[in-house]
Design brief:
mainly alpha; elongated
């Protein structure tokens, strides 16, 4: 966003009030209104600068995080066979070459169901009566 000039807010307010039939004369009230408008303008401009700075810092942090995630999740490069071993060493072993180690393990028995600490075994769920 563009920054607001010091008297821009005051002039807009004065123009709005003139369109409603209220005109500022020289004196204490217009001077105080001008000071208040200057403070509001300064606060808005500082808030805009802070928001822009925070946005750039967050964007930089997000980019760094994206890079780290990319590096961690990128596929690993396949190892290249060394010239001394030749292409025979790069072939994967076949399934017939490795016999199974023994009988397949049986699945474990599921753990027993827990009862609620407030219910007694066999008691139905629901409201007490």
């Amino acid at each position: 966003m563009k920054t607001i000039q010091n008297d821009e807010l005051y002039e807009n307010l004065r123009g709005f009030l003139q369109s409603k039939g209220i005109e500022f004369q020289t004196g204490g009230y217009p001077a105080r209104i001008r000071q208040a408008c200057a403070r509001v303008t300064q606060a808005v401009n500082l808030a805009q600068k802070a928001a822009h700075k925070a946005k750039t810092e967050v964007d930089a942090g997000l980019e760094k995080m994206r890079q780290v995630i990319h590096e961690k999740t990128a596929p690993k490069p396949s190892p290249t066979p060394s010239p001394a071993t030749g292409p025979e060493a790069a072939e994967p072993p076949t399934a017939a070459a490795a016999p199974p180690a023994g009988p397949a393990p049986q699945p474990a028995e599921p753990p027993p169901r827990r009862q609620s600490p407030t219910r007694k075994p066999g008691q139905k769920r629901g409201r007490r009566r």
